[in-house]
Amino acid sequence: MAINNPTILTHNGIALLGSVDSVDLGSTGATTIFTVPTGKKCVLDSVRIRNLSADAASAVVTVGQVGALTDFMGNQTLSALNAAAATGTMRPLVSATTVIGVEYTAGEVLQIDVGTASGSGAGTPTATVEFFGMLDDA
User: Of 48, 87, 100, 116, which residue has the fewest beta carbons closer than 10 angstroms?
Assistant: First the structure.
């Protein structure tokens, strides 16, 4: 079936929801990446970490809403991000059973939380963090 309504494609397609440069992966703490707009619902699809300034392989992060910072992704060790300019994508993996998602509602604040800071000896790693997902009308 062809979709001839461009509004459907731009409104309901997976797109970049929010992006923050220079997220500090060498210190613990949460960084807000996206707040669900009024009148909308949001389902996250993936998280991309790019533009890495230094080795962040020992950092451990979680992703979710304020108050439940693990509801999208629990502890993720960034072991593959072991050099400047490395890029990685995180998303829940499909298995034999359905991957449960979270539908966030208007006003909910979505964050990445560094629970274990990277112990990089080559300087404090920072990166651009991007959330991708879908917005729908509430």
Answer: 100
